[in-house]
Design goal:
The structure is a single chain. This protein is an alpha/beta fold. It is built from seven helices and ten strands. The chain has helices at residues 50-57, 83-87, 105-115, 120-133, 149-161, 179-194, 206-211; strands at 9-19, 25-35, 39-43, 65-70, 73-74, 90-93, 167-171, 198-202, 216-220, 223-227. It has a six-stranded mixed β-sheet with strand order 6-7-8-3-9-10, with helices on both faces. Strands 2-1-4-5 form a four-stranded antiparallel β-sheet, with helices on one face. Strand 9 (216-220) and strand 10 form a beta hairpin. Helix 3 packs across helix 4 and helix 3 (105-115) packs parallel to helix 5. The longest helix has 16 residues, at 179-194. It is globular, with a radius of gyration of 18 Å.
């Protein structure tokens, strides 16, 4: 991708390959960069490597070959003690939500701010505002195991965006919600992007990709291709 001189490089893949234990490639020799304030879709068939690519970025996996640089750091050089601080700059939306079962919906969301040092009252106030926005204002005191999959996904998204992270990685964030809710969540991501967050959304939802004018990165047979909509902002 071409560099925008006024922007900072957030992610860089240099000749990155990842192999299954069998030796077959998940993907190989990938070279690309993401810059601050970019918004990208990541598409591809199931098993194409979308989740694996995201895991490389937040250092849940290490590449078999090549260099992954995030926020100017070689992620393979990060020690386990450094990972929590490194990931505080990110918002992560997982397919399985990963909510803490013993905390209420509100406290699951507020926890992201509490970790940064914010007092409980302020963190809960911000959490309430965001949960009302995603349609869960009447579920503040529910425990996660009482929610539907779609509701859990919305809680996970609220938790990921509440800190206004530098980078948001969202893995199938609308997979468990209806189309109306999916478009509303995408609008939330758009607002976050406008204030400077770099966003990467992995999705199978073709209508979302076609409805929002952002570059599409498509993984297929171990390689990455890039499609720029005519009215997309340049990457």
């Amino acid at each position: 991708m071409s560099q925008r001189r006024s922007q900072v490089e957030i992610i860089r893949f240099d000749h990155v390959s990842l192999y299954y234990p069998s030796g077959a490639p998940v993907f190989y020799n990938l070279n690309f960069s993401f810059y601050s304030s970019g918004f990208y879709f990541l598409t591809g068939a199931s098993g194409a490597g979308k989740t694996s690519m995201m895991k490389l970025i937040y250092r849940d996996l290490k590449p078999s070959e090549g260099l992954v640089t995030v926020f100017g750091r070689d992620v393979t050089s990060l020690g386990n003690a450094e990972l929590p601080l490194f990931r505080q700059k990110m918002g992560l939306v997982f397919q399985d939500c990963r909510l803490l079962p013993h905390l209420s919906v509100l406290d699951n969301v507020a926890l992201a701010l509490r970790i940064t040092g914010m007092d409980l009252k302020r963190a809960r106030n911000y959490g309430k505002e965001l949960l009302y926005w995603v349609g869960l204002g009447d579920h503040l005191n529910y425990l996660p195991n009482s929610l539907s999959d779609g509701q859990k996904q919305r809680v996970g998204i609220a938790r990921a965006v509440i800190t206004r992270p530098l980078l948001l990685l969202a893995d199938e964030p609308t997979g468990n919600v209806d189309d109306k809710a999916a478009f509303k969540l995408m609008q939330l991501f758009e607002e976050l992007n406008k204030i400077g967050t770099t966003i990467l959304v992995a999705t199978h939802n073709r209508s979302l990709v076609d409805s929002f004018s952002h570059p599409e990165l498509h993984l297929s047979q171990g390689q990455l291709s890039i499609n720029y909509p005519k009215n997309a902002r340049s990457a």
